[in-house]
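Q: I have 271 residues here and want to know how they pack in 3D. Can you give me a structure?
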Amino acid sequence: MKENGSLPEWMCETEQYAPAGGRDGFLARSTLRFAGLLAGLRGGTGCREGAGADGTAPARILCTLSLILLAACSRNRLFFLTLLAAFLVRLCFLPGRALAGCFKTAAFAALFSLCLTAPAAFWGATRAVWELPGKVFLSVGLIRLLSVTTPWNRITEGLGRFHVPDLFLLILDITLKYIALLGEICLHMLEALTLRSVGKNDRKAHSLAGVAGVAFLKSRELGEEMYGAMVCRGYDGTYRRPRRPFSVRRDAPYLAAVLAAAAWFVFLEGA
């Protein structure tokens, strides 16, 4: 302070901080990807048939695997076109988001298969160029249809009814649950990083390594807590299976579809 009691000039100057605009495209895309992953694992695809109102999970799994096996073994074009038409008709009864998810996943797999088989056309194997991508489209679409219409816990329960080893079911169940849980943790960290980012920072992509590190440490901590909880509760790794795995009334359409497809397959292949 000066002798006359006035403030110094540098204390009287106003400070106006205007941070440069930063690009949050990387954080936004990462957040959307994590949100989409969580929506898919939680059955948030817009399809509300997961309660099993029109069939139990074992019947759906049996129908899906049977149709995929028949499509893979068939060499008749009419049989494949019949299954493809039935599959497309089934997609029409799904909500919009579930239909788009099934079709996009199957189309991407078929396109990738087409890129691999396209060179075979130069050696005269033109049938394989369209046959293999078509079967890949149908197989991936059926699996995707099963995933959007049946929750993951019902799928693991259905696999248990087919006497799949309990160790495999335990690994699958825990993996799916912890992917969703860790994805939610990463999503919250990305949201916090977005809110705390002020100004221009050209190294925002490097923050993904920190997010991955925190997720790894959190997964280790949760794994130890889960192991302790399983020991305290006396869990021995056994999945209980109900006595009646199927419901005749609810599973009749799926069982009829399998029988009809098998009969059509035998008729066309034997002709």
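Q: Anything worth noting?
A: Residues 44-53 have pLDDT under 50 and may be disordered. The chain has ten helices and no strands.
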